[in-house]
């Protein structure tokens, strides 16, 4: 029995050692996933810059942050610059830090009051009262659309949902950025890796 356990453990360790050669793929996958998210977020803020600044500073219907012009500029720079650097795999760990900060700000100023779910689903485990109450509203909206609209055409691209705007997506991106902070840009697939190799060679 001990021999069997040792053999299985040895094979498991060998599997881990062999997978180390492909560890760059995980980092690359995370980067490719996050690039369009931050690029589109930054572009949207930049294209509506005045509205973004006003939203950042307004305490009644916005975030109520101090120095909204500075904060908006920093957020846009982090998101657009972050997308570019993630695409190149350049300064990957470094750029993850301001991006993590933007996610934390988004979580605690925008999303946390709405609970976990991004899309309202009253049957999900983390459904709060806001989500549970959305079921009646969604059903009423469907009745109106079925009665007064071409419901089959309206739903041909997907079902109607209620956007709950909870922390789900922001936390997901935060976790991914945390993983990149540890993993870096990835072996073979990032500028960080090749710059590091160049620096090591130059010191020999």
Automatic annotation (TrEMBL):
It is found in: Cell membrane. The chain crosses the membrane at residues 21-41, 61-87, 94-112, 170-195. It comes from the Bacteria. Keywords: Cell membrane, Membrane, Transmembrane, Transmembrane helix. InterPro entries: DoxX, DoxX-like_oxidoreductase. The keyword Cell membrane applies. The keyword Transmembrane applies. It is a multi-pass membrane protein. PANTHER family: DOXX FAMILY PROTEIN, OXIDOREDUCTASE CATD-RELATED. Belongs to the DoxX family. This is DoxX family protein. The lineage of its organism: Bacteria, Pseudomonadati, Pseudomonadota, Gammaproteobacteria, Moraxellales.
């Amino acid at each position: 029995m001990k021999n069997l356990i040792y053999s299985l453990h040895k094979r498991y360790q060998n599997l881990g050692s062999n997978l180390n050669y492909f560890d760059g793929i995980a980092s690359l996958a995370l980067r490719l996933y996050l690039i369009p998210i931050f690029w589109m977020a930054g572009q949207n803020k930049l294209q509506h810059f005045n509205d973004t600044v006003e939203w950042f500073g307004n305490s009644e219907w916005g975030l109520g942050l101090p120095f909204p012009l500075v904060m908006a500029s920093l957020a846009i720079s982090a998101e657009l610059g972050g997308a570019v650097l993630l695409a190149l795999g350049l300064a990957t760990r470094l750029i993850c830090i301001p991006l993590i900060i933007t996610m934390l700000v988004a979580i605690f100023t925008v999303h946390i009051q709405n609970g976990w779910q991004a899309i309202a689903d009253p049957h999900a485990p983390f459904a709060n009262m806001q989500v549970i109450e959305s079921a009646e509203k969604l059903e009423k909206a469907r009745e109106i659309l079925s009665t007064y609209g071409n419901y089959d055409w309206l739903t041909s691209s997907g079902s109607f949902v209620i956007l709950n705007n909870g922390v789900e997506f922001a936390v997901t991106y935060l976790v991914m950025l945390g993983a990149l902070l540890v993993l870096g840009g990835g072996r073979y697939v990032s500028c960080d890796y090749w710059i590091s190799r160049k620096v090591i060679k130059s010191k020999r």
